[in-house]
Each structure stands twice: as structure tokens, then as C-alpha cells.
What does this fold into?
Amino acid sequence: MPDHNILIIEDSPTMRQLIAFALKRIKGVRIVEASDGVDGLKKLSAERFDLIFTDINMPIMDGLKLVSLVRNDSNYKTIPIVVITTEGAQEDRERALALGADDYITKPIQPTKILDVARSLLKI
Amino acid sequence: MQKDDERNRGEEFLQVFKKGAEFTQDLLKENERLRFRLLELENAGLSGGPDSVDSVVKRLNERISELELEKQEILGRIRRIEEENEDFAVRYVEIEEENSNLANLYIASYQLHSTLDFKEVLQIITEIIINLIGAEEFAIMLLDEKSAELQAVATEGVEREQIPHVALGQGVIGRVASSGESHFAEDVLRYQRDFESPMVCIPLKIKEHVIGVLAIYKLLMQKKKFAPVDYELFTLLAGHAATAIFSSRLYSDSERKLSTIQGFIDLLTK
It folds into this structure.
């Protein structure tokens, strides 16, 4: 059984791979990828996660809706959420934090930043 | 009777005298011994012998000096170790950064060759430019060999129609395509958007053959300048994006031709 189960919800395969690549440096980590909010919710219901990384702009269900649904569900409301935004999208970022996201990272993404945020929220 | 008394007194006197003489002899001997001892002590003091106070002080001072030297040496070693630790910390940060940069390059390269679908290749190039380089407005332009013109095939942040067609060798974009040399605006911060003169223009090359260019007009808000890894990414894009675009186009063409031929064969054989 992994020490840390992390869910990445991101429509861009490049970004998913970059985030996963960075997170794999955490010892005992297991990463599950989802390509949009709906896919993310499906994966979320199938197993327990310790951390969620989600993009804001995604097809089908965006990151803001996902943050709102997760925070209002008693089963998942304690899971830390990190949103991925662009620096210009300040409004989205503020909304995500207001909805209950724990932290955010901005594009262009640096693997060290992803790792720092994950370690801080996983308290390792 | 009187004579006996006198004799007794005489004998007592002789006894007392003898004792006095013995006592005097003892005193003289003691005096001699003490004088000898005093002489010994005086000699010891003058010659600095092992028991003298000065020699003890001297030995202690020497030991203090030795310990002082030892302390200085230990402090020096601690200083050197601290300096080494600082060097290691700096090196660690550099390696972490290098690792991040290599991760970016690896993922960019991996993604570029993960598909043979032309539209997907363009999408991946767009994602790399936004997410790894941090550009907000840019265009991917390909060279039309027949008309010798560069035309935008994908854009981000601007409409495709806004990007002018550029003849090979004409203006900044045309010169980059004809020379194969990249163009960077002198001052990224003061750059004003000009569709004919982008902030950055990178040729997409297969060996020395240019198939198009990548023109960047605006960076994301937080991106104030290019980092060394950006130039590595530009170099990677110049080569790998070009081969990915070229292969996907060839594949699409062959697929289309195959489909057409298959259609004819089906028609003939029915």
C-alpha cells in the first residue's frame, strides 16, 4: 500500500506527465491521473487520496466546479487541493481558494515548486 | 658529713654540666642540618629544578600555548567544513534546478514524439510553449514550399487571421526562415507587440532545412525574462517540433492516399 496517494486532474497530457514526474520523487507515492473533472470524481470515488492537483480550465467539468463538489462532500472534504492556474487568472485563483482549495501553482510550472507544495500539504 | 654533701653537690653539678654540653651538641647538630637544608633549597631555586614553582608555571604556560594552537586548528577545520557545507547547499540547489530543467526537456521531447496526428502535434507544441516556456501570445507558422510563404497554422492568444503571411526572406520572420538563425528582441520587457517582428522567432528545422517558424509575441505576466532552460527548450523545439510536424504531415498524407486508393480498389473489386 502506498504512503501517499495523489490524484492529478489535468486535460493536458504534457502537464500531467510533468506533475507526475515531479511528484514521483516523493518516497512511497502513487499517482493516479484524470483528464477532466468528471473523470477525476470517478477516480476519487474509487479509492482514498491524500492530495489532489487540479487544473482550472478543463473540458466537461472545470477545476472550480470540482473544488466546490469535493469540499461539499463529507467523504472528501479534508483532502488538500492544489489548483493550477496562470498568473493572469487571478479571479479564478481567488475563487478556487474561496471555495476551499489549499494552495495554487502558476504556469509555467516548475517541478521543484510542485514538489515543495506537495511536501508541505502532505506534511513530509 | 659536710664533705659528703659537697661531693654530692659537685656530682650533681657535673651531671647538669654534662647534660648542658650534650644539649649544646644537639643544638649545634640541628643547626648544621637546617643550614644544609636551607642551602639545598637555595640551590634548587637557583638551578630551576623539577620542583620549582617557575618551572611548573612554565610547563603550564607551554601546555596552554599547545591547547591554544589545537583550538585554532579545530576552529579552522570547523570553518572549512562550514564553507564546504555552503558549497554543497549551493550545488544541491543547482542540481535540483538542473533536474527540473531536464524533466521539462524530457517531457517536451517525449510528448512531441508521442503521436503522429498533425493536430495533436500542434496541440502539444502549443502546450509546451504555454506550460514550459510561459508564453501567452504566439503563432506556429509553416512554410508553404509552393508559394514560398510562411502561414500560421496554430495560434494562442491571438487570432490566426491576425498573423500576416510572410514571404521567405522578408522581414524578421522571413529572414529567420531563410537563414535558420533564431531572433530574440533586445529588451523583452520593453517589447511592443508587432506581428511582423516577434519578441522571439525560432526556426523549425530538420537538419538545415527550415519547415516553419515559431513566433512569440507576449510572455505570461509573471515571466519577465528567459531562463537558460528556455533557450534549451527553444533549441529542442527547433529540431524536435520540426520532425514531429513533418512526420505527422507525411503520415496524414499517406493515410489519406491509402484511404483513396483503398476506395478505388473497393470500387473496382465490387
In short: Chain B touches chain A at residues 96-97, 99-100, 103-104, 106-108, 110-111, 114, 124, 127-128, 130-134, 136, 220-223 (CB under 8 Å). The CA atoms of residues 152 and 161 of chain B lie 8 Å apart. The domain at 113-253 of chain B is CATH 3.30.450.40 (Beta-Lactamase).
